[in-house]
Write a structure and sequence with these properties.
- With about 240 residues, the chain is an alpha/beta fold.
- It has one domain: NAD(P)-binding Rossmann-like Domain (Rossmann fold, 3-Layer(aba) Sandwich).
- Helix content is about 45%, strand content about 15%.
- A seven-stranded parallel β-sheet has the order 3-2-1-4-5-6-7, with helices on both faces.
- Helix 1 crosses helix 7, helix 3 packs parallel to helix 4 and helix 4 packs parallel to helix 5.
- The longest helix has 29 residues.
- It is globular.
- It starts with 7 loop residues before the first strand and ends in a 7-residue tail after the last strand.
- Bound molecules: nicotinamide-adenine-dinucleotide.
- Nicotinamide-adenine-dinucleotide (NAD) binds next to helix 1.
- Keywords: Lipid metabolism, NAD, Oxidoreductase, Steroid metabolism.
Amino acid sequence: MNKLTGKVAIITGGSQGMGASHAKLFVSEGAKVVITDINEAAGTKLAAELGDNAIFVKQDVASEADWQTVIKETIAHFGQLDILVNNAGITYAKSLFDVTTDEYLKIFNINQLSVFLGMKYAAAEMKKADSGSIVNISSINGLVGGAIGYTDTKFAVRGMTKAAALELAHYHIRVNSVHPGVISTPMIHQGDTDEAVKQFAKMIPLQRIAEPEEVSKMVLFLASDDSSYSTGAEFTVDGGLTAQ
Ligand SMILES: NC(=O)c1ccc[n+]([C@@H]2O[C@H](COP(=O)([O-])OP(=O)(O)OC[C@H]3O[C@@H](n4cnc5c(N)ncnc54)[C@H](O)[C@@H]3O)[C@@H](O)[C@H]2O)c1
């Protein structure tokens, strides 16, 4: 399939989990992909597996200097930028009483500040071509409450998406948010969580958690011209969880 032929995409947090799945699907659809992550070993390995149409650039998404480097490397290697998937993120489940200010600022920087920086620097490049698509990965916790810190940042991503979509529509740059439910990635398999995940799955109308590829198909739709009239909108992939 060639839904992304001729397009160049940056995917943050692309070394594993959903980001890696998006990178694989994008390359199979004809895109050239810049995979970024703090996990250099896994990212370099994945880029090598994907061949000439993928490169890995080490990036901490919370670093403004790293964003400038990633954009520069993208243009130097592939000559243009059409798509940004702001996917990198972290989570923790701590109570309001236990979370420290340092922990709070860390999740803010990685989940929220990163999306602002990514949109700012990517849109500056996309503006030159008068087109582009930015896909911000939020969560169902950008729609309904969950853990403190994580929920805050994911609601912010949803709001930032709408603000940027309004401003960037003038340049034909579309900006949308994706709200995954429970997806089988290393993020949800941290520690001894298998039984908890199994129990949780029973509460999901479709009675199961999802595979990363099921979210990738939504991200592909938003990245491609198939979604040409969608901007500033929320796209939920949650098996019906938030419909209850
Ligand atoms: N898995 C789920 O159930 C779920 C549900 C809703 C939303 N999400 C969101 O989807 C996105 C991807 O999640 P996932 O489940 O694939 O997670 P994951 O933990 O499997 O992968 C996240 C990737 O981000 C990278 N990363 C972490 N901090 C970084 C930083 N500072 N700079 C650059 N890269 C960094 C990690 O190295 C890792 O490769 C996240 O934004 C997450 O919040 C996940």
